[in-house]
Amino acid sequence: MATADIDAPLPLARVLAAIGGVYVAQSLVGGLTFMGVPAVLRAEGASLAEIGLVSLLMLPWALKFLWAPLAERYRIRPDGARRSRRLVAAGQIACALLLGAVALVGPDGGQALFGLLALVALASATVDIAVDAFAVERLADANRGWGNVAQVGGGYLGMVLGGGAFLVLVPAVGWTGATGAMACLVLLLAVPFLSGAEPPLPAPATPHRPSLLYALRRPEVRLGLLVTVLFEAGVRLVQVLSGPFLVDRGLDLAALGFVNGGGGVAAGIAGTLIGGLLVRRCGARVALLVAAALQVLALLALTAGAAAEAGAELLAGLVVLKTLSMAMGFVTLYSLLMGLSSLKQAGVDFTLFQCADAATAGMAGYGAALAAGTLGYATTFAAAAVAAGIGLVLILFILRRLAAVPEPRP
After folding, report:
1. Where is average pLDDT lowest: 37-51, 109-123, 186-200, 336-350?
2. How many structural domains comprise the chain?
3. Confidence of residue 202 (pLDDT cuts 50, 70, 90)
4. Per DSSP, what are the bridge partners of residue 82?
5. I want to staple 327 with a disulfide (CB 3.0 to 4.6 A). Which of 151, 268, 282, 283 is the partner?
6. Distance between CA 146 and CA 386 in Å, rounded?
7. What is the mean pLDDT of residues 127-156?
C-alpha cells in the first residue's frame, strides 16, 4: 500500500495543525450551508420547499471525483514539487470572498443566495481534494490515525461553528456580521496550512498523468470502495432517523438540541480520539474491524430499545452511543483508505473513497426514511444491524484479500 514513511520530513505537529485547521474550515462551510442557513431561512418565513433546495448543494462534494484528476494534474508537478498550498490558498480565498458576497446578499437573496452558496461548495470541495492528498503524502503510516482524528474531529468542531455559533451570532450582530465572521474564520483557519513548508517529493520513475481510470484499475481502490460501502451502509441507515425517532418518542426540540449539540459532539470527539488510539496501537485493519463490531453492537442496542419502547432518555443515550461508534468508524475507515491511496495521485484515489461514502449516505438515508415509514423504527434499526453485521463479515474477507495484493511502488 501507499506509504509516506520516507517521504514525510515535516514534523507531525505541523502536519496536524495544517490539515486540522483546513478541515475545521471545510466543515464550518458545510455546517453553515446545511444547518445554519436553512434555520435562518425558515425563521425569515421561507417555505420548506425552498429550504429543500439546500440539499442540492451537496452535489459538489458528492461529484468532486469528476474534477479530482484535473486538480491533481495541477497540484503535482513533474519534478515532484507540489502546489497544495497554492490550491488551498486559492480555494479558501474564494470561499471567504463568496461568503462575503453571501453576507451582502442577505437571507432574502433568493436565487443569488443559492448560486453563491453553490460556488462556495464548489470551491470548498476542490480544497478537500488538495488537503486530503497532502495528508496522505505527509503522514507516515504510524501517524495516519492522528491525521484522521484531525479530519473527523475538525469536522465536528466546524459543524459547531457553522451550525451553532453562526446561529448565535445572527440575532446578536445580524446576518451580515455573522456571515462576515464566518468568512474571516475560513481564512484564519487556513493560516497554519499556508504558512508551512511543503518540501518536494521524489519524482516518479516514469511520468504519470492522474486519472480515474488509473485509480479504478488498481485492486486496492476497487476493494477500498467495496469496504467503504459495506462499512457505512448499516450506520447510515440509522443516522438520518435518529432525530425524528427521538421526537416521536417524546423528546422535545430543546432536549434534542442538547443531545445533538452536547452529547453528540462530545461523543463524536471522544470517538475520534478512541479511534485514533486504536489505529496507533493495533493498525488500521484491526482497528476497522473493532469499530465495525462496536457499530453492530450499538445498532443492536438501539434496536432493542426501540422494540421495548424504552424511555426517551435511555433512547437518547443509545443514539449518543451510536454517534460515538460512528466517529470511531470514520477515523479507522479513513486511516485504512489513506493507506490504499497511491502517492502518484492521492487526491484522486482518496476523493473516490469519500464520494462513495457520500453516495452511500445519501441512498441509505433515503431508503431508511421509506422503510421506517412502512415498517417502523425497530424493524428498520434491526435491518441496519443485520446490514452492519454482514458488512463486518465481508470486510474481514476483503482485508485478507488486500493483504495478498502486492505493494505498489510510490
Report:
1. 37-51
2. 2
3. confident
4. 76
5. 268
6. 30
7. 85
**Cell numbers representing residue 360 in the block:** 452511500
C-alpha to C-alpha distance for 393 and 401, rounded to whole angstroms: 13
Q: What is the grid cell recorded at 99?
A: 461568503
Q: Could you give the CA distance from residue 193 to residue 211 in angstroms, rounded to a whole number?
A: 26
Give the pLDDT mean for 262-271: 82
Are 217 and 176 found together in one domain? no
User: Within 10 Å of residue 345's Cβ, how many Cβ atoms?
Assistant: 26
Q: pTM (2 decimals)?
A: 0.81
Beta strands in 133-282 (DSSP E): none
376: left (phi over 0), alpha (psi -120 to 50) or beta: left
**150-159, 201-210, 233-242, 274-283 — which one is most confidently predicted on average?**
274-283
Q: Are residues 308 and 168 in the same domain?
A: no
- Looking at residue 288, its pLDDT comes to 94
Of the chain, the percentage scoring pLDDT greater than 90 comes to 36
Position 201 in a domain:
no
Which residue segment(s) compose the domain that 165 sits in?
12-195
Measuring CA to CA, how many Å separate 332 from each of 19, 28, 231, 278, 342? 17, 23, 11, 8, 18
DSSP3 helix / strand / coil % (the chain, rounded to 5): 80, 0, 15
Please tell me the predicted confidence (pLDDT) of residue 235: 87
Helix or strand holding residue 239 (H, E) = helix 219-239
Using CA atoms, how far apart are residues 330 and 336, in angstroms rounded to an integer? 10
Dihedral (CA of 38, 44, 49, 53) sign: negative
Q: Rounded distance, CA 121 to CA 94, Å? A: 10
Query: Picking from 115-124, 155-164, 218-227, which range would have the lowest pLDDT averaged per residue?
Result: 155-164
**Rounded distance, CA 119 to CA 122, Å?**
5
* 196 DSSP assignment: S
Q: Is residue 51 part of a domain?
A: yes
Amino acid code (one letter) for 46: A
Domain boundary among 164, 195, 226: 195
What is the 8-class DSSP label of residue 309? T
Q: Work out the number of other CB atoms within 10 angstroms of the CB of residue 290.
A: 18
2: in domain: no
